[in-house]
Each structure stands twice: as structure tokens, then as C-alpha cells.
Amino acid sequence: LGELLDAKQVSSRELAELFLARIDALNPQLNAYLTVTADLARQQADDADAAIAKNARRGPLHGVPLSIKDLTITAGIRTTRGSRVFADWVPDADDIVAERVRASGAVFLGKTNTPEFGHRGTTENLLGDPCRNPWDLTRTPGGSSGGAAAALASGLCPIATGSDGGGSICIPAGFCGVYGIKPSQGRVPAPYEGPGGWRPFSQPGPMARDVRDACLLLDVMAGPDPRDATAITTPAPNFADACVPDVTGLRIAWSPDFGGVPVDPEVRAIAERAAL
Prior knowledge:
α4 (about 95-105) links the parallel β2 and β3. α2 packs antiparallel against α3 (about 40-55) and α5 runs parallel beside α6. The chain has a three-stranded mixed sheet with strand order 1-3-2. A three-stranded antiparallel sheet has the order 4-6-5. By secondary structure, the protein is α+β, with helices and mostly antiparallel strands. The chain is about 30% helix and about 10% strand.
């Protein structure tokens, strides 16, 4: 999408309208988004198109739509943290993750569903219906970044921010068939200590439909910041450049029963077919 935008083969407004239309059609079934920021997305997209016309691209995500997990604090956008306590809270300032993706020129589609304060491995809360897995609406997308994973799997956004304190990116990515990674602790600064007590364990991280897109988002999110005393102080590597385009000749290890943990026979069979 970034390349198409640079080549002026598509506009950011067209992309925003495409994803907003899909959200309008599918989110009532999935409840992947708790808040949809349609007006903001259109304004940001128009601003991005105007900058592109002047060759004033702001960053690697310029004009690209994305979703933001609703544990992330966003200026001027309702931030519920999956709780009725914060059902009407509109923060005055972004946290570092939101600040960085906004500065990169990304277009905010909305805030994705999460269990209350991220305290579950599934995504339901008292704000409304549970988030549902787009592959099977009777099943959960996992959690706590379940809304982000469901949105990605159903094409309601191309990239998404998540966070992980105990599998909150990895579980929904696995349940929904998308890619997510929990970065090393401190790689992405996050100074706020919100409700739930996850801060010593949690890391914001990228989620996407493939590894390369996640690397682009991680490049924007990662890096030191003096506002977080626990952040890694050395500059982050360029994750997009580290992506290997061709894995031919590489040896990749895998184990069907690492550590003696039992694996469901169906899951094991699928993994074996993929490995071979």
C-alpha cells in the first residue's frame, strides 16, 4: 500500500474508505472494533494525500490505515481499556506508541477490542458483545489483542498495534492465522502504569498479515525514549531490512512436543505437514 501511495496509483482517502466500508459491513458480526474513528481517518487520509502531492512524506506508514488496541492511550479518541469504568474516557494526550504511529503519518481507523485491562486470553468485556473469530463466529479470536487479530484476519485493517504480557499478541495471532510478535522487554517504550498491573511484563508490539508488514510497524514503534526508564537505551535495529526475502538454504528447527508439553493431534498433524 505504501508503494502504491508513493506511485500515486491509489490515494490514502481511497484506502481509508475501503477499510471503513469493510468495517461497516463486518464489524457488527465480529465486534473487532470498540470505537471506529471514521471522521478522523478521512481527515488524516486527506492530510496524507496533500503531503504526498508535495512530496512531503512523513514516515514509512504515511497514508497507510491501521488499528490501535484499546489499551493504548490516544489523544482525542475514546480509550476504554475494555472497561465500563473508562467507557467514556477521552485522553488529552497520546502514549508513546500512539504518538509514534501518528507521527509516521498512519491513518487511524479506530480502537480494537480487548478484555478488561487485558486480563484474559479471550476477548470479551462488559462493554458489549464478545469479539468473534472471523474464521468461525462461534469461537474466540483469543486475547487480549483479539480485536486486532480479528480485524486483520477479516481485512478490517492492514496492520495493527497490540500488546503482550502473557501471550496477548501470540495467542490471538495463532487463533486467527495472522502474524504477531512480542518484542524484547523494553524494545518498545511504554511508560504508563495503567490498571491491571501488567506493566512489568507487557510490551507493545506489531500485528500484521505477514512478517514484513509487522517489521515496518515495529520500526516505527521501537527505540529508546527518556520517558520510560525501563526502555532499552541502545538504538533499535532496522527490522524491515533484517527480513530475509528468500529462506532457501536456511535450516529451521521445529519440535512437535518441545518440553514434553502435550499437543493436540490435529495441531501436530498440521504442523508436521507445514514443516515437511
